[in-house]
Design goal:
heterodimer, A: 291 residues, alpha+beta, Uridine Diphospho-n-acetylenolpyruvylglucosamine Reductase, domain 2, Uridine Diphospho-n-acetylenolpyruvylglucosamine Reductase, domain 3, Enolase-like, domain 1, 3 domains, 5-stranded antiparallel beta sheet, 12 helices, 36% helix, globular, B: 780 residues, Aldehyde Oxidoreductase, domain 4, Aldehyde Oxidoreductase, domain 3, 7-stranded mixed beta sheet, 30 strands, 28% helix, binds flavin-adenine dinucleotide
């Protein structure tokens, strides 16, 4: 379990990193927290010729709020997000979900950018970014663009990033008042990837009618799945157990579980229903009474 | 003798070294010119080898040598049969043991085909990709029942039906008993494979000193003495030319008693051939293929009972997956066969098994070593009987216990140590009573469970009993020597892998010789320090080596008293050994340090009496006539989420009787660790092979070891029924925690979810939330 030979380049600025990436393309990989990349290299599942280390680039890390949007630098560590007061105030969904990701040691190193660029379909964050309607900033040496979360994840471990692009930041719109969120997952052990997980968002109006709802799933497809019909079924409703059950039923149709050594497709689909009901219950409760 | 230390929960002597990083593990061994080995392992389970071409690989910079089976010449030989089959009438056994490097045929994924020696492990692994292998794939033998069919492929070309062994044992007349029975239960039970996954994988460093003609091997083995003897034999050396050191080892659990692993055969050969030291450390990926595994069995069992729940007889026919090879003989299935009888009177028993070759890694004992399966079958049969006859689960067990006055109790069949399965001593009722009491069983079933169920909560209880055959022969030895600085040196031939030998053995010595327990320096597992021994397995360290230590300490004590009596010109009876000195009782100032006395026992001049031995030293051996039988009860309360089938353990109780206890703290550690492993086995761990015998979850991300969060606090109780088979009255405790956890989970989960009412029974291990969901759906 030793990696194949590779060259190691330390990037001191975004420009340096992008220049190196432009030069090496698919042969080169960015090194963020290394918590997915390095194990995969040790198994020789991936054998990049060049590693471009982003860790020294401080401008890639950090959380700021402007114009109702949280902008999170790609190299922001999980642990920083987990403990950030602004995140807790504006997007508690992230704060609730982060402890489900791996273990503290790994969260001290792992980054939001590395996670999203890695696009593991069982990972929590892609589903969360999808549920929050996030936008991903992609930069290359010559261009910069914004990709909607819905378009970013194109398959298992595959994103819309081009070979010369870096994910530089993630933008997440802050939710309106009377919004509630919940993240629930089932994994075999604490810190494992989810066999099924759901990020639920509901927004109520003053009359307690649901004005907006989003339901995104991890572990239940080759990418984060948004159950649009299920979410739509809630809008305009006064949320109740019956509404949750109907949304759960629709969500079960929307997910596309792949099955694994830990869970059959049937069990995963079953979990999608159970978790949807529970998450909606909690999210609605929070919309009514605050996080 | 004062017993200051024996029986006291003192902290472990070795922990300072372990926790401060001062303990030597195999991978800590660094030698000048050390080469690193990597093995090319088969990615296919069953195939004929056409060609292995290493020419390109040899050219890679940093690669020193590459060898295949062809290079080994006459040294290439199948490994020895470690345990011949016991003398059971009519037994059939096909010996097919593992080979150093696959030559003509590949029999499981991960079987080594070539060894690369390079300046470092990275380069060695790089070169693996350069080796060209051409094979003719064969259908893989995976499923135990299919393996037996006429049309199945053959793991070993000359073994029809893949039958590794068949054995039949009986006691009484089951058929006659069943004919008279009020009630007969029949079920099929399945138990699947797991891997031991010690925190330290296997590792070997071999170093040849050409000038001295001497080979040193550091190895994570549980059996250093046998490794030395075997290596000497294979290499044409005498035993004194080979030194095997099993230093600190980070867990072993049985698979490290296996020898000879291919790596163990090849590394010393390479070290001699290249005249350079060589290191190989098994990585975690290799561990899933290169280390032996355990636990695949299918049982068709029946139990005949009277209306009031008395067992009249048990009949069991089972298939045992022995993997690609059977170097460990029949220890595992024989243990299953014997341990099934449990703490119960089973007047009539008929048990036969077929061991089956499959294209999976070889099966040899892993903590429990077949005992799990036997306990699973009998305990589940009793659960079903209790339900069908309307008897309380604890009560049906109590009714069948062997009564205390019936010991020694002969089960009339042959055990793994070739001796009749005779339980030395036991008193089972109080163990069960104590467990029920600690669990609050009465209150739980009569009040709490009802109340919680009314609140919609799914809580259940499980109670299982087991016996553990421990402390088998043949023998172990110990040498004790008082050093001039007053410290006491103790060496023994067994190796240590975390059992606390540095403390428990020291406790025995410290009390005998009146020294501080920290002044006893223990060395284990170094064949140049102690020549003889068998190894650390079958919960025998404390029983067998412990009693040898006691015997040696007793002789040294006698020598001390004799010499001190001469020195003081007093009677031995007037002397006391305490605080590292011998003193005349009640006479202040009349005292001599043990170190000083040791010097006197080795005079530089003058004459000694004929027959005098120098020093305060003794070597003694101990071999029990047969194993000592420990027993216990595990009980737990669980809660299940009826929708996700996620399980929470609310309470876990173990009451255990392993005879006299040397150190309750160490014993608790043994039990806790065992329970953790048992929980893994019952609900988390499973080696998932596909129909080509490819392992689908060969990493710790997908092979789910329970973590600290999944293992509850274990409440531990003891009763003490000393073993009459050894002077210290000890029974082993190494496997007690792990053995009965499967049926405990099955019983408690069934109860929590009310499964029998839904027509669902849990007759397999491991279970998982996914599996529970599947079974419940099937029931609907
Ligand atoms: C034991 C264990 C348990 C885990 N459990 C979970 C879990 O439950 N849930 C979960 O989500 N994850 C889990 N992980 C994975 C962990 O979250 C990783 O940290 C994460 O997936 C990758 O982030 P990273 O910063 O470590 O990225 P790296 O491993 O450094 O990189 C991952 C990939 O993304 C690329 N990359 C990195 N940064 C960028 C960028 N800015 N632009 C473009 N490409 C980039 C890299 O080249 C690489 O291909 C676990 C990991 C371990 C070791």
């Amino acid at each position: 379990m030793k990696p194949a030979p590779f060259r190691y380049i330390v990037a001191h600025s975004i420009e340096e990193a992008l220049a190196a990436k432009a030069e090496h393309g698919e042969e080169g990989r960015f090194l963020a927290g290394g918590q997915s990349l390095v194990p995969a290299m040790n198994f020789r599942l991936v054998q990049p010729a060049v590693l471009i280390d982003l860790n020294p680039i401080s401008e890639l890390a950090g959380i700021e709020r402007a114009d109702g949007v949280l902008r999170i630098g790609a190299m922001t560590r999980y642990r920083a997000l987990e403990r950030d007061a602004i995140v807790w105030r504006d997007l508690p969904l992230i704060t609730h979900a982060l402890p489900e990701i791996a273990h503290p040691q790994i969260r001290n190193r792992g980054t939001i950018g590395g996670n999203l660029a890695n696009a593991d379909p069982a990972s929590e964050l892609p589903a969360i970014v999808r549920a929050l309607g996030g936008r991903l900033r992609a930069r290359s040496a010559i261009s910069e663009r914004t990709i909607k979360a819905a378009d970013f994840f194109v398959g298992a471990l595959t994103t819309a990033l081009a070979a010369d692009e870096m994910l530089s930041a993630i933008e997440l719109p802050v939710l309106p008042a009377r919004s509630g969120t919940a993240f629930l997952e089932m994994s075999r052990r604490r810190g494992d990837f989810a066999l099924a997980g759901v990020a639920a968002v509901v927004t109520l109006d003053a009359e307690e009618i649901c004005r907006n709802a989003r339901l995104a799933y991890c572990g239940l497809g080759d990418r984060p799945i948004h159950a649009t019909a299920a979410a739509q079924s809630l809008i305009g409703e006064r949320l109740s157990e019956a509404a949750f059950a109907e949304a759960a039923r629709l969500a079960q149709d929307a997910v596309d579980p792949q099955g694994s050594v830990h869970a059959s497709k049937g069990y995963q689909r079953h979990l999608a229903g159970v978790l949807t009901r529970r998450a909606l219950r909690t999210a609605t409760e929070r919309a009514r009474h605050g996080h | 003798m004062s017993t200051r230390y024996f029986g006291a929960p003192i902290p472990r002597n070795e922990d300072r070294r372990l926790l401060s990083g001062q303990a030597l593990f195999v991978d800590d061994v660094e030698l000048p010119g050390l080469l690193h080995a990597a093995f090319l392992r088969s990615s296919i389970a069953h195939a004929r080898i056409r060609r292995i071409d290493v020419t390109t690989a040899r050219k890679r910079a940093g690669v020193v040598a590459i060898y295949t089976a062809a290079d080994l010449g006459d040294y290439w030989r199948p490994g020895p049969l470690l345990v011949p089959p016991p003398p059971i009438a009519g037994l059939m056994f096909n010996q097919r043991t593992q080979v150093p490097l696959a030559k003509d045929k590949i029999r499981h994924v991960g079987e080594p085909l070539a060894i690369v020696l390079a300046e470092n492990r990275y380069l060695a692994e790089d070169a693996l990709a350069d080796i060209e292998v051409e094979v003719e794939p064969l259908p893989a033998v995976v499923d135990l029942e299919n393996a037996l069919s006429e049309s199945a492929a053959r793991v070993h070309g000359d073994v029809a039906g893949n039958i590794a062994a068949r054995a039949h044992q009986r006691k009484g007349d089951y058929a006659a008993a069943a004919a008279k029975a009020d009630h007969v239960i029949r079920r099929r039970f399945r138990y699947d494979r797991g891997a031991s996954n010690p925190i330290e994988t296997r590792g070997i460093v071999a170093s040849w000193d050409a000038r001295a003609g001497h080979l040193t091997v550091w190895d994570t083995t549980q059996a250093p003495v046998f490794l030395r003897n075997g290596l000497a034999g294979m290499l044409g050396l005498s035993e004194r030319q080979v030194r095997v050191i099993a230093p600190f080892v980070g867990g072993a659990f049985g698979p490290k008693i296996m020898l000879f692993y291919p790596e163990e055969v090849v590394l010393p050969w390479v070290a001699i051939k290249l005249n350079r030291p060589v290191k190989w450390i098994e990585d975690r990926l290799e561990h899933f293929f290169a280390t032996t595994q355990e636990r695949g069995q299918i049982h068709d069992a029946e139990m005949a009972l009277t209306r009031d729940g008395k067992i009249l007889g048990v009949k069991d026919t089972f298939l045992h997956d022995t993997g690609a090879y059977d170097p460990y003989g029949l220890t595992v299935p024989i243990n299953s066969q014997c341990t099934l009888l449990g703490p119960y009177v089973v007047p009539n028993y008929e048990s036969s098994f077929t061991a089956v070759f499959t294209n999976k890694p070889a099966v040899t004992p892993y903590r429990g070593a077949g005992r799990q399966h036997g306990v699973f079958v009998i305990e589940r049969l009793l659960d079903i009987a209790a339900r069908e006859l309307g008897i309380d689960r604890a009560e049906i067990r109590r009714r069948n216990f062997i009564p205390p006055e019936a010991f020694p109790y002969n089960n009339e069949i042959i055990y793994q140590d070739f001796a009749p399965l005779e339980y030395d001593s036991g008193n089972y009722g109080p163990v069960l009573d104590k467990a029920l009491d600690m669990l609050g069983y009465e209150r739980f079933v009569t009040e709490e469970q009802r109340r919680l169920r009314a609140e919609g909560r799914h809580v259940g209880v499980g109670i299982v009993c087991y016996v553990e055959g421990t402390g088998i022969g043949p023998y172990e030895g110990a040498k004790i020597q008082v050093q001039a600085n007053g410290k006491v040196s103790l060496v023994t031939g067994i190796g240590t892998q975390g059992q606390g030998h540095y403390t428990s053995f020291a406790q025995i010595v410290a009390d005998r010789l009146g020294v501080d327990v920290r002044d006893v320096d223990v060395v284990t597992g170094d064949t140049d320090q102690f020549y003889w021994g068998a190894g650390t397995f079958a919960s025998r360290g404390a029983v067998v080596a412990g009693n040898a230590v006691n015997a040696a300490a007793t002789v040294v004590r006698e020598k001390i008293l004799r010499l001190a009596a001469e020195h003081f010109e007093c009677a031995e009876e007037d002397l006391v050994l305490a605080d590292g000195a011998v003193a005349i009782a009640g006479v202040p100032g009349k005292s001599i340090r043990l170190g000083e006395l040791a010097l006197k026992a080795n005079p530089m001049r003058g004459a000694v009496r004929p027959g005098t031995e120098p020093g305060l030293e003794a070597t003694q051996y101990f071999g029990p006539p047969r194993g000592a039988t420990a027993n216990g009860v595990h009980a737990m309360i669980v809660e299940l989420d009826p929708d996700t089938f996620v399980l929470t353990i609310n309470k876990y109780v173990v009451v255990h009787d392993c005879g006299t206890v040397i150190n309750p703290l160490i014993l608790a550690g043994q039990v806790h660790g065992g329970v953790a492993q048992g929980i893994g086995n019952a609900f988390y761990e499973q080696l998932v092979f596909d129909d080509q015998a490819q392992l689908l979850n060969a990493s710790l991300a997908d092979y789910l070891l329970p973590t600290a969060l999944d293992v509850p606090r274990v409440e531990l109780g003891h009763t003490v029924t000393p073993s009459p088979l050894n002077p210290l009255g000890i029974k082993g405790a190494g496997e007690a925690g792990a053995i009965p956890v499967g049926p405990l989970f099955a019983q408690a989960i069934e109860d929590a979810l009310g499964l029998p009412a839904q027509g669902v029974e849990l007759l397999e291990i491991p279970l998982s939330p996914n599996r529970l969901w599947e079974l419940v759906m099937k029931g609907r």
